[in-house]
Amino acid sequence: MSLAGKTIVVTGASKGLGLGVVKRLCEEKANIIAHYNSGDISEAAACAKEAGVSFTAFQADLSDPAQVMKLAKDIVACGEIYGLVNNAGVCLFEDFFDVTEESYDFTFNVNTKAVFFLTQAVAKQMVDNGVKGRIVNFSSITAHSGSATQVHYGAAKGAISAFTHMAAEALGKYGITVNAVMPGPIPTKHNSAFLALEETKKDMFERMPMKCYGQPENIADAIVYFLGERAGWTTGTTLPVDGGFLAK
Predict the structure, then answer these.
(1) Helices vs strands, H then E, count in the chain
(2) For residues 210 and 118, is the Cβ–Cβ distance under 8 A?
(3) Which positions ≥6 away from 190 have C-beta within 8 Å?
(4) CA angle 10, 12, 103 (to 5 degrees)
(5) Is the pTM of this model over 0.90?
(6) Terminal Cα-to-Cα distance of the chain (whole angstroms)
């Protein structure tokens, strides 16, 4: 079963890993429903146009629950959806004692609460339409490796790992699979300066058997696997795509 002609929702699609996923799905000739917030969605739209697939974009701030619920309604109103990729996320680097209620809520609203309710809405449409769909979440290696300056982020992504297991249990009887990727160190707009530091590279590469950072394409390939037919009997799985970071 090809992804050609199937409609896939990708959140956080304007840049970084989300844009990489959109580009890969365009190669597969999937139709795209893209969410973005403050980024420029034009590159994703251009990829879809070049690939000859349909492209619909919605802007929403996922830290605002009201905007999340409106986004969910807009997405399901587009017609039959086959796949949902919950990529959008935020990561604040803060000392544990500097985390405020505001930054905690911001982190959990975007990384966890929005994922829950978007998944709920899309999965309900899949069930109503009899679609044996695919849902792929983004957890993080930080949920397992720990970080002194990402305590709230790691906790939110740990919740995504748990949510993936629970949603797989809830939706399996409908033929819907729910899996997650845990990306390793990949230079993107928000972390490229940090990852470029020689001290950072030394620490990272000493831990990673592959001795190099990943690329968005590495994550996109895993996403396409989980969306595809060959993953039809795989659900509730969290897959590290991390150059071996968690192996050591």
Answers:
(1) 10, 7
(2) no
(3) 16, 91
(4) 135
(5) yes
(6) 36
Question: What is the length of the chain?
Answer: 248
Which are the catalytic amino acids?
A: 140, 153, 157
- Whether 30 contacts 53, CB under 8 Å: yes
Residue corresponding to tokens 């720990």: 146
Lookup: tokens for 161: 């790992």
- CA dist., res. 143 & res. 116, Å (int): 17
| Rounded-to-integer distance, Cα 112 and Cα 157, Å | 7
One digit per residue, the tens of pLDDT, for the chain of length 248 reads: 589 999 999 999 999 999 999 999 999 999 999 999 988 999 999 999 999 999 999 999 999 999 999 999 999 999 999 999 999 999 888 999 999 999 999 999 999 999 999 999 999 999 999 999 999 999 999 888 878 888 999 999 999 999 999 999 999 999 999 999 999 999 887 788 888 999 989 988 998 999 999 999 999 999 999 999 999 999 999 999 999 999 87
Residue 180 has which token pair? 């997650």
